[in-house]
Amino acid sequence: MEFLTEKEIDRIIEMAWEDRTPFEAIHFQFGIKEPQVIELMRRHSKKSSFTMWRKRMKGRNTKHSHIRATGISRFKCSRQRAISSNKISKR
User: 25: which of 54, 60, 75, 84 fits an S-S bond (Cβ 3.0–4.6 Å)?
Assistant: First the structure.
């Protein structure tokens, strides 16, 4: 994960905290899988923040596309503004 810029790390952390952004979206945009996201969160968060995040993510069905409701096939809300530094918003 040393290949990520500070801006990309900030965006990954932001996406990881979002309830409706699945880990698959992070993998699609940045090429890192869930265990790497967890390690990144552990390294770049305070211990209490990391513990709170892990508690929050545990069992959350919106963070894993394979256990999501079948009608949801997008990475972001249809009403969400495009993020200019986000690679996927340019497609």
Answer: 75
In this prediction, residue 69 carries a pLDDT of: 56
Structural domain includes residue 11: yes
Q: Is residue 83 part of a domain?
A: no
84 part of a folded domain: no
Please count the structural domains in the chain: 1
Task: Determine the Cα–Cα distance for residues 20 and 72; give it in Å rounded to an integer.
Answer: 10
d(CA 61, CA 24): 12
Considering the entire predicted model, what is its pTM?
A: 0.68
End-to-end CA distance of the chain: 24
Determine how many CB atoms are found less than 10 A away from the CB of residue 33. Answer: 12
Contact assessment for residue 44 and residue 2, using Cβ atoms and an 8 Å cutoff: no
Residue span of the structural domain in which 1 resides: 1-65
The answer to whether position 72 is within a domain reads no
